[in-house]
Structures are given as structure tokens and as C-alpha cells.
Amino acid sequence: MQKEVSIIGGGIAGLSAAVFLADKGYKIRLFEASPKFGGRTYSFFDKTIEAEIDNGQHILASWYKNTFDYLRIIGSLDKLTFQKKLRVKFIDNEANEYLFECPNLPPPFHLLAGIIKYKALRYQDKKALIRLVNLLKKGKLRGLESMNTDRLFSESGQTERLIKNFWEPFIIAVFNAKPKDTSAKMFADVIKTGFLEKGGSELVLPNDTLSNILISPAIEYLRGKGSEAFSNSRITKINFEDNRITSIITEDNKELKSDFYISAVPFFEFKDVLGESIYNKVSKAGNLKPSPIVNIHLRFEEDIDDVFTERFAGLLGTNVQWVFKSAKDRLTLVISSAGEIAEMDKEVIVETALRELKMCIKGFENKKLRASRVIKEMRATFVPDQESLSSRPDNITIFENFFIAGDWTNTGLPATIEGAVKSSKYCSDLIFNL
Ligand SMILES: Cc1cc2nc3c(=O)[nH]c(=O)nc-3n(C[C@H](O)[C@H](O)[C@H](O)COP(=O)(O)OP(=O)(O)OC[C@H]3O[C@@H](n4cnc5c(N)ncnc54)[C@H](O)[C@@H]3O)c2cc1C
């Protein structure tokens, strides 16, 4: 008989768990509390910008293998652009441009070649950087679990300019946190996966809206397989007996039973869903702290291709860290680890962002702004500091038919799409192998 799995949460973790299991012949019931699927990745039509926009610019990397498996199954892989080699243009607040480009050489030589040519660093900086990469590659650094990257950087002689023009932009982009709030262990693991192993370091950019790539095709796929996905469907209670979950209860008080259950809710809703008694048995999620990301969508009166020829660029020495061209007359500006900025009025954020844009990229002083939209995601990710390492639960629980997925579980990765999908792949493999 076909086995049934109930999945709580319709973000990327829940959707991908559903897809992996439906692909193996399981019948899925997916419950999403909000009116839309996608969780922290979604798109909507914005009346001010007069276009379909994403809640936040998302970037993938060529080592996002689990994510690509998911996208392959739902038929979305061709909606991504894969860089042929890692290439990022940085622009500082005096409009100086620096190219960081890694040729197609085996790792870590591609990275070393990129570093050598990167003009935002001087000889001493490059020497310090290469020394740290070497230590990471050889696995020679001890005590990484008990420090954040600011200490690792000071202990390994990373220079101020190197931190400002290389490590900080990298860490903020990948971890949505400053070096002082980023675990050295997680940093070392990401450098290994992203730069020192064969998976590839290239960036991967969406060619369509997040919903069209990651969400709607998954819902279609699930329904095509005879599975069910319900929005506006909050799960309010989980019942258990001994070492098994026995049923879940919906907001309108329906009791539902299935063979297996997966929680794919974010860390900040986990306790509510589980209830005190189950939470105390399975979780150590208590210490995770949220970290915000602010996205500023700008639409201009005319095309901007003549002044900004890149698809995206990193900014140095500004609050805005990344500029993405989203259409010929539109930009998305990103401020990650946005603590203080996220507290500001939206008008002040737009003013600040525009001022910085004009400082960095010549020609924008002549472009007239038509519309702007600021999206503050106050709980975009968790702060990946050293304390977070012991606060991430394993995917397996003391209940033999209950698993936990989500970007915040113990994947070894920062809170990313790949982290979410890796967790769900692991949960679905566990169920499949039972
Ligand atoms: C602005 C922004 C930019 C980002 N940029 C990047 C990037 O460039 N690259 C990258 O890889 N990652 C990025 N991320 C991170 C990425 O979006 C997340 O890691 C990922 O979407 C998390 O997915 P999830 O399924 O684990 O959690 P969520 O997306 O939070 O999904 C959980 C779902 O559970 C639902 N839920 C909660 N309680 C219940 C309940 N009781 N019953 C039913 N449903 C419930 C919620 O409504 C939600 O839809 C970014 C995030 C943001 C916000």
C-alpha cells in the first residue's frame, strides 16, 4: 500500500521533501499556514514597481547539488544561469572597479589565481589570504568550534584591507552575518565545500521569479503525482504516543493520520507547532537568533543598461552590499546582516541606497527614479555564531516516524536554499530507507 507522509510547512524545505518523496512513490499531504507557498522565498506583483518582484534577491552556487536535484525533478533547472567561471565585479565608494575572477583551473588553484589578480588587495593581504586558505585546506586549524571568524582572522594575521575588501563581503553574502557573528567552523566548512573541493565555486543566478522557478512548478508536480498541498492550513498540534507521532491537528480542528511526519517550519515557529512536551524531547533550537536582510527595489524612468552593464556587482565601503540588474530599467539592492538599517524608515533607506549607488556607479546621478519598494525580512536567516552550532537539531528525532527539515537544522551549512534542501533530502532518504 502507498505510504503517506504529512509535511508541516510549505517553504523550500517542505516543498523539496514533498517532491523527493512523491518522486519515490509516497503520497504527500503538505500543509502551509500562510496563503502562499514558498516561505522565505516568494514573488508577488508589486503595484508601485509595476512588476512581479521577489521578496529578496537569491543567489545559488554551483555546489548546491541537492537544490539542483530538486529543480531537475520539477523541471526548473533551465531557469538558472550558471557562471562559466566565478566572476564578481566589486566597485568601491569612489567608483574604482576591481574584478575578482577565478579561471577554470582545479581547486584551489582557480582561487589562488583569482586572488593574485584581485587588485583590491595588496601583496601583504594576498600573502595572508593564501596562508589562511592553505591552513584551511590542510585542516590544520584547531579549536574552530569555539571561535567566531573575527578571532580566526586576527589569529591568522588577516589584514584590515583583506577583511574589508574580501572576507567581509564574502561572509556577509554567504552567512548574512558579520565576521564577529559567524562561526569559524561553519566558515571553514563552506570554504572547503565552495572553494577547495570539486563541486565548483561559480555563482548561479535565477532567470525568472523565485515563485516561477522554485515554488509553482513544485506544487504542479505534486498535484500531478496525486499528492495534496494546502495553503491557509496551519497545523496547531502534534499528538504522540510512546516513540511515535500518532496524528496532527489542523487549525479547523481536523485530526489527520499518516505513516510519517516531517516538520519543515522555521526555528522561530518550531516550539508553537510542536507544543511544550514534544519540543522539550526533540529540540535544542533555543539559542538561534534571527538576522534581517533588506532588499531595495528601484525602478527608473529609463533604461539603465548604458550606466550599469553588469548583471550584478558587489559594492565596497557602503551599506548596500550588492546591486543586481533585475530588468533593463530596474535594480535590486541588497543589504544583508541589516541590523540597524532594518530599523530605519523606508524613505531613509531608499535615500541612503540611492546616494551610495550614485557614489559607486557613475551615470546614476542622471537617472530619474520612478518607483521604489523596500522589503525588510526581519527573520531572513539565523545568526550563525559559535553558539548556533549546538542549537541546530538533527533531522532525526526520538520519534521513529518524525523528522525535522529546514535551513536551521544541523546541516553544517548556513541558512540557505541548499541547507533547506539538504535537510529535506536527508529526511526523505531516512523515510525511504526505513
Ligand atoms: C531576503 C532573503 C534573501 C536570501 N538570500 C538567499 C540567497 O541568496 N541564497 C540562498 O541560498 N538563500 C538565501 N536566503 C535564505 C533562504 O531563503 C532560506 O534559507 C530558505 O528559504 C528557508 O527555507 P525553509 O523551508 O527552511 O523555511 P521557510 O521558508 O521559513 O518555510 C517554512 C514554512 O513553514 C510555514 N509554517 C510555519 N508554521 C507552520 C504551521 N504551524 N503549519 C503549517 N505551516 C507552517 C511558514 O509559513 C513557511 O512557509 C535568503 C532569505 C531571505 C529572506
Q: Which band does the percent of strand residues land in? A: 15-25%
Strand count, sense and closure of the main sheet? 7 strands, mixed
CATH superfamily annotation of the largest domain? FAD/NAD(P)-binding domain
Q: Can you name the CATH architecture of the largest domain? A: 3-Layer(bba) Sandwich
Q: Low-confidence segments, ≥5 residues, pLDDT <50?
A: none
Give the C-level CATH assignment of the largest domain: Alpha Beta
- Could you tell me the CATH topology label of the largest domain: FAD/NAD(P)-binding domain
Strand tally is 20
Shape: globular
C-alpha end-to-end distance:
15 Å
| Sequence of strands across the biggest β-sheet | 8-7-16-17-18-15-19
Could you tell me the radius of gyration in angstroms? 22 Å
Give the proportion of residues in helices.
Answer: 25-40%
Structural class, from helix and strand content? alpha/beta
Number of domains: 3
Average pLDDT figure:
96
What ligand species are in this complex? flavin-adenine dinucleotide
Number of discrete helical segments: 12
What does this structure look like?
The chain has 434 residues and is of the alpha/beta class. Helix content is 34%, strand content 24%. The chain is built from 12 helices and 20 strands. Helix 1 crosses helix 2, helix 1 packs parallel to helix 12 (417-432) and helix 2 (65-74) packs across helix 12 (417-432). The protein binds flavin-adenine dinucleotide.
